[in-house]
Design goal:
This protein is of the alpha/beta class. The protein is built from five helices and five strands. Pfam families: SPOUT_MTase (PF02590).
């Protein structure tokens, strides 16, 4: 299965970038991973960029504060269902400072909340990458090393 993390904006802070890169390297042991950073712009421009970046036939997960909350174990089971169901790609979409365009959010297969609090896209990406890695370790009954 392919995983795509598609987000508006770039992570420039060295410490955050290093941490995200570390988790992405770990994820690549289990799945092909693409991180796609989109340039911000008008709603229609950002919407078009998301549409172009989302892989064909992907199951789309929109990160939204109002989305469904899951434990790490339930999230792992969701990833497992995608693997078992032969979902070719799992695309996680993260908006910029104004959130996701409504049309992108409305057409997502799942709206997922990482927290009841609004997270900056940089921190949301780090948190998401860690949870994706954790999901794979849970599914394979592997120890999670900190």
């Amino acid at each position: 299965m392919k995983i795509a993390i598609i987000a508006v904006g770039r992570v420039k802070e060295r410490g955050l970038r290093d941490a995200i890169d570390d988790y992405e390297k770990r994820i690549k042991r289990y799945a092909k991973l693409d991180e796609i950073e989109l340039e911000d712009g008008s709603t229609s421009e950002v919407e078009a960029r998301f549409r172009k970046a989302i892989p064909a036939r992907a199951r789309v997960v929109a990160l939204e504060v109002e989305g469904r909350r899951m434990t790490s174990e339930k999230f792992a089971r969701y990833v497992e269902q995608c693997e078992i169901g032969a979902v070719p790609a799992l695309a996680f979409v993260i908006g910029g400072s104004y959130g996701l365009p409504k049309s992108v959010s409305d057409t997502a297969d799942l709206k997922l909340s990482l927290s009841d609090m609004i997270l900056p896209h940089r921190l949301a990406r780090l948190f998401l990458a860690e949870q994706i890695y954790r999901a794979f370790t849970i599914l394979r009954n592997e120890p999670y090393s900190h």
